[in-house]
Amino acid sequence: MSNTDFESKTTSPDASGATRPGGPAANPRTPPRTLPSMSSERDRTGSSHESTLDHRGRLRQQALAERRRRRWATLALLLVPVLVAGLYAMFVAAPRYSAESRFSVRSGVSQATGPAGTPSLLATGGGAGAAGGFVDGWAVSQFLRSRDCMRQLDRKVGLRRYLDSDGLDPFNRLAADADADRLYAAYLKAVDVSYNLIEQVDVLRVSAFSPDDARLLSEALIEIAQQFVGALDEQGVADALKVSRQAVALAERDAVDARNALTEWRIRNGNIDPVAESGMLLDLKGKIESELNTAKVNLDKIRALKNPDHPMLPPAQGQVSALQGQLDALRARMSGKNDTEATRLRAYEALLHAQTFADQNLMLARQNHQQAFTDTLRLARYLGVIARPVPAVRPDSPDVVVLLLEALAAGFVLVFAVRIGQAFYREFRHG
């Protein structure tokens, strides 16, 4: 390489327009850049780069702070209900004590048996069918939940003072002038009844603000349930005997009417027993016929003498004529065309048969009524107490663990609702 080429390379401008060191002056039209101007440009570039980094750092710090605030807000929404529930359970909530009792509706007859003396699977402990035991137990459980039972309990023990707490708990307060709806709501909160279909046993749980109150309310409810079962039993027996009683009353009325009709006929006809009189007339007719036959035989004997002037002929003829007249009159009396013994006997026998039928019908109706009464003894039921109410020593309400879990669930729901609200706000805040 020649010296000329080396000098041209050493003096050629670089990419920035400045001459390399040791070379000739650059283009005379472009003023040469001095060292201070180049350093200021570097300072401006570096300062802008640093300001961008600082800005990004500040944005990152703000985002982190906003995220921390949201986390703390979420944690507060979760824990505030739990904290409130814990404070309520420890310092405000009124303790409630429960007493549990068990009873069942039974009947007094023996248990039904199947073939070979084996107990029937469809029989309850009282001998009634499974359907009957289910209906009775379910009826008692529904009655204990009814307003009627609440009113009876209120009249019996004064229910309001047992459902009102003297503490600060607002959820267990019952005003003195509370209406029936609020009293019923408090009653359902304190009384819980469940029915076990398999065992056919009613389970009564009563909660109150003291063990003695829980036991007293349980005992009162058991007495009311026993009265309800007794009334239900009386109603069932009355319904079962109603038809048989009506049949007996109708049969008695028919028998009395038939007897009165027969008595009136006897008074009107002046004859106590037309049947006996007809028998007497029949006997008399037989005697007259016998005497008439004898008189005719005597008359024939006298006529056989062929003596028209025989002194016994007129008396014999007169005797035959008299007996024949008596016989004709007796026959007319017994079976003539007008008021005869036959017509009177027909009316009398009709009345007598009606009375006999009425008496037999009355006797049958009374037998059926007695059988129905015997059958209704199987309907006799009673409320058998399996376990008397024994109150708990320690309060079972409020359940702190359950209450805190419910409060935590409420906190999750609150957080979810707030997040949904924020999402809707960000979506629609610009229109």
Give an overview in words.
This protein is of the alpha+beta class and 431 residues long. Among the domains are: 96-243 and 385-398; 245-378, Four Helix Bundle (Hemerythrin (Met), subunit A), CATH 1.20.120. Helix content is 65%, strand content 8%. The protein contains ten helices and four strands. It has helices spanning 3-10, 35-92, 130-144, 147-157, 180-190, 211-269, 274-304, 313-335, 341-376, 400-428, and strands at 97-107, 191-196, 201-208, 381-391. The chain has a four-stranded antiparallel beta sheet with strand order 2-3-1-4. A hairpin with a 4-residue loop joins strand 2 and strand 3. Helix 3 crosses helix 6, helix 4 (147-157) packs across helix 6 (211-269) and helix 7 (274-304) runs antiparallel to helix 8. The protein is rod-shaped. Mean pLDDT is 76; it is low at 1-36 and 110-131.
Unreliable sequence segments:
1-36, 110-131
* Strands side by side in the biggest sheet: 2-3-1-4
What's the main sheet like? 4 strands, antiparallel
pLDDT averaged over residues: 76
SSE order in H/E notation? Answer: HHEHHHEEHHHHEH
Roughly how many Å is the radius of gyration?
Answer: 60 Å
Number of strands: 4
Structural class, judged by helices and strands?
alpha+beta
Approximate shape: rod-shaped
